[in-house]
Amino acid sequence: MCSILVNPKRSLSTPLLYLSSSATESNSSSSSSSSISSDAAEDNPYCYSRQFDLNDVKMLGGLSKSYKLLDVLSGHVGAISCLALCGEFVLSASQGKDIIVWQQPDLRLFTKFGTGEGSVKALVTVGNKVFTAHQDTRIRVWKVSRRSENVFRLLNTLPTTKDYLGKCMKQSNYVQIRRHHKKLWIEHADSISCLAVENGFIYSGSWDKTLKVWRLSDLKCLESIKAHDDAINGLIAKNGIVYSASADGKIKVWGKDLNNKNSNSNSNSSCHRLEGVLEGHKDVSMNAALVVVENGNERVYGGASDGYLMGWEREREKEGELWKLVVEIKAHQLSILCLSLMGDILCSGSADKSICLWRKDGLRGEISKVGIIRGHEGPIKCLQASPNCVGGGFLLYSGSLDKTLRVWWVSKDIKDTEEL
After folding, report:
1. Fewer CB in 10 Å around end: N or C, the chain?
2. Interval 287-334: pLDDT, tens
3. Which domain holds residue 30?
């Protein structure tokens, strides 16, 4: 993930924005990017971060409860669809085609970019670049302009022109998407709904039911997988494994096929293989996924459109690998749209306008509700937990169809169910 930092020699009113190319990459969909690692935060649960010091953050009341609303950020022309954390900055994007960069710790609007490029569905940051997925079936690559410190310049669009021209002359590179209509296999045929990034690759999931793999070094599309029987709603990439959540009610697990000769070439041949299928409820869309790996145990949590939060644990057997359902809870009255995790606290956002807080059991995989946060006036589309510690807690960002981004403080020691 990228780190966007502020030059310490400049005041917060006139920050210098730059993206560190040396920052390490990590998962985009449910993990945060930051100049302070989540591992460091977990080692010291009461550590303080300069940019997130509660004394510097605009407060809306005291911290009398285990979680509290800090601020409401307005400025988007459309419903907020996705979030990403980049060091001392928060990036939020909307269905109104605009992307806003918010500056910590005063949470002011720093700059906007991307207007007019199509409704934004997903957002990830890698190295010194920002990748945005759009309803117009394109992925756009942005970079901070050298001429102006707060202007993002459009660097490229995926698939790139070079990639397109290299394949458009061969008929075998075209696939049927509708009657009497074909497209190159490197092109998405419908809205791109989600992105994930890891180990030099970026993954895109679409309503066209396909999962595509792109190489970051040259932005080439390496692979297109007919992954699901319905739209793909969420992607997670972790430890070389890709997890895709779909409206067909399944979360599928994709591993690298090391025996495939074309695994490192620009080919339509599949270099990922299906390793597992996690079945949700029949005829119920799976909207979001979250992956947790602890002490060798691997668990996948999924949020469904019937309001259920489900969890599976991988069981490694001598003759293969099986997934066991360990969590099945009616978490919300309406559809779960997003999930985020910080330490032992799992957060679920829903169309019922609430955020539920859950504490997970690291040994048994079970979860218990410890809080309900209310305040949004519309469905909650995206959540992002920051690994930066603040007064024994963490910051949680929530984006909603009510066009606002809300900032919450959540205690890491929360135990009993409370409601804000």
Report:
1. C
2. 999 999 887 788 999 999 999 999 999 887 656 668 999 999 999 999
3. 3-419
